[in-house]
Amino acid sequence: MNEIYTKYPESFDRYTTIRMTHNGFPVGYARLIREENVVTIADMFIYDRVKQPVKFLPWFKIYRNYRNRGHGSQLLNNVINYCMKQGILEIIGVAKGELAALKPWYMRHGFNVNENNEIYLKLNA
What we know:
Aminopeptidase; globular
């Protein structure tokens, strides 16, 4: 099995993490904070150097890069869908990092981004 798997938490009271894996190795995660019907994306990360053994040579390890392959978009869509199923009305956060790429990326996913790099998405209830 050679696919990306997303693990969702069983419950979402205050804090939770959505994780993505590939053959049991980490691809990325999103840490979320819930306050009633509003979720803050505290942190989202896609790994760029994951050390994995080669199938037939387990003592030989290679590094896999999961960035720039659509996994971040998949993770963000998973966060949005999970929040909708939980009855969340808004997703907020702050874009940090490579802002020239992140701002349009968030906007392609339906978020509004203001001059302070704050992101906002209103979900349909």
